[in-house]
Amino acid sequence: MNIATTLVHAGTRRDPATGAVAVPVHHSATYQHPGLGQSTGYDYSRTKNPTRAALEDALAQLEGGARGLAFASGMAALHCALQLFGPEDHVVLTEDLYGGTYRLVDRLLRVPHTFVDTSRVEAVRAALRPDTRALLVESPTNPMMKTADLPALVALAREAGILLIVDNTFYTPYLQRPLELGADIVVHSATKYLAGHNDVVAGALVARDAALGERLAYAQNGIGAILGPQDAYLVIRGLKTLALRMEKHQANAREVAAFLERHPKVARVYYPGAGGMLSFDVTDPALVPQVLGAVKLCLFAESLGGVETLITYPTTQTHADIPAERRAALGISDRLLRLSVGIEDCHDIISDLAQALDAGSR
Length: 362
Description:
Blueprint: H1 3-8, H2 50-63, E1 67-71, H3 74-82, E2 90-94, H4 99-108, E3 113-116, H5 121-127, E4 132-138, H6 150-160, E5 163-167, H7 172-175, H8 178-181, E6 185-188, E7 203-207, H9 210-223, H10 229-239, H11 242-262, E8 266-270, E9 277-282, H12 287-294, E10 299-300, E11 310-312, H13 324-330, E12 336-340, H14 346-357
Parallel strand pairs: 2-3, 2-4, 4-5, 5-6, 10-11
Antiparallel strand pairs: 1-7, 6-7, 8-9, 9-12, 11-12
Helix pairs in contact: 2-10, 12-14
């Protein structure tokens, strides 16, 4: 089936007893055993819950993987993936990635790591060491919107005998399916486009093969940062409109990017040509508080991927934990704003940005 059809049917046919079209929400912590040594397939909801299982199965199908796992947040999902490695194992990561990922790897888990521009395959190759065990890639990157040559990185990872983990939050399986290209694990902040309505916090992993999926499931059960059934239901509900939303996000983002590229107070636009995320440099740092204070339709808020257009300032918000000198080297300057383009009428989004950019001239 086309992925748009698969999305619409996420979670259906899960209740043969009643034929319910919407997946039931199973608010049960535990499950009665039929007898000694027997199980219904569900024993305790930290390990497995029917509503969460419906979401996990849908995610695996959408990404073309063998096993999906749903978590309490995107960071919980990434934390689980990093449990595959020991304290001496080295990981290569995208250099301009989400600040929360930087915080987890550099300050909390203290994983031996090297940051590199993963849009340059030879730079990635040069960063590999004998103790490297994985390559963690964001594509597009957050917030500079660089894209990686995933097939080339797959070949490099195979050659080096390491795992390739791809954060697919920005493009979603509707636009990009890394596992089908040969990646080993896909990570999502399901809070974002998958759920799509700014009403739930969730994360996901999808493993390409069953053995790797079982290792991740063992870590998930041990850590326990699982997604609750009500939140799993909300993500499933969001998935059903993902194809429609991504088409509108993308169409709007292209129009907004074109407008910003023409605006005299915008120095540069960072848009990868697909998806709903873009960033832009204004010509003067003084324009940042002006724009953030003047927007009326666009919401000055963190996060992304919801139906509403959100604007954020990475320097003090999403990437505040990255040292200032490193931010500067990556281009995350005091003039950079990030825009999650929503599904409103694009002319209304553009009009709001225009009046905000010109507010100081009135």
